Amino acid sequence: MITCFIRYEIDPFQREQFKHYAQQWGHIIPRCGGKLLGYFLPHEGSNHVAWGLIGFDSLAAYETYRARLKSDEQGRANFAFAQERRFILKEERSFLEAVEASS
Questions:
Q1: Does residue 26 sit within a domain?
Q2: Residue 78's domain spans which residues?
Q3: Distance from C-alpha of 75 to C-alpha of 93, rounded to nearest angstrom
């Protein structure tokens, strides 16, 4: 399994908008083939960094997911919501694999 680790820089004054955006992925991501591990908002310390973690069986499964996401009506609407409201200032993706026997 690989994990798509998404680091967001968000507008701290629009925290609730990002929370709504993240909650919408809760039913969109699984429907499109991803295993949502969670979205995380800042709580203590930095107030402008949020995280999203999504699991996939392989990079090929991720590519299939991306294709499904692009054709998903609710997925497109959620992306449009973020673009219109501009609460995401920057987004970075990394792909990680778990180290066996480390958890």
A1: yes
A2: 2-91
A3: 18
